[in-house]
Amino acid sequence: MNISRHEQRVLHELALGGAIHYDRCDKGKIREVTCVTREGHVLTDCTLDLFQRLKRRRFIRSQNGRPYRVTRLGITSVRAQLNQR
């Protein structure tokens, strides 16, 4: 499956325990997203367009109004990357 570099980066951070927090407008549409890593840092690569692509491909999902997390499909489709810790 073809996944862009930015999608890979966001999915990798989500697989490590990060989450995507979102804000909704009055009509219920998501207007702003913030990708937060496990350590609490904000990932600037996650834009609204990238969020919509990940959601459309079912790589991320939200349950009961919680922040978006990676799905099993998202974990299996992301390539392994070295952690720079």
UniProtKB/TrEMBL annotation:
Query: What InterPro entries does the entry give?
Result: YjhX_toxin
> Which superkingdom does the taxonomy of this entry point to?
Bacteria
NCBIfam families named among the record's database cross-references: PRK13687.1
Kindly give the HAMAP family that the UniProt entry links to this protein: UPF0386
**Family according to the record:** Belongs to the UPF0386 family.
Query: What is this protein's name?
Result: UPF0386 protein CBW24_08885
